[in-house]
Amino acid sequence: MHIGKTLFPVEGIAPEYAAMTIRVFGEAAGQAWLDTMRPITPRMSRIFIQPEWVGVMDFETRFPNALERAMEQAQA
Fold first, then answer.
1. Cα-based distances in Å from 9 to 15, 48, 51
2. Theoretical Cys-Cys bridge with 14: which of 7, 10, 36, 75, CB 3.0 to 4.6 Å?
C-alpha cells in the first residue's frame, strides 16, 4: 500500500504542537515544556499523510465481528 506524505518545515515550534502541549499538560506545565523545547528545537516539520483507503468503524450501528461473536456467546 502506498501512502502519500508531504513534509512542511516550520521555523521554531509549530503552533499546533504548542496548542496540543498546553491542552495536554495544562497552561503552566505546557508553557514550561515549551520554554524548555524552544532552545533545542530550531525547527519542526509538519507531516501530512494521505492514505489510499479509509474505513469507518461505526460502533453505534455495527460492532467488529469478534465483538459481535463474543456478545452472542455471552447471551447464549
1. 12, 11, 21
2. 10
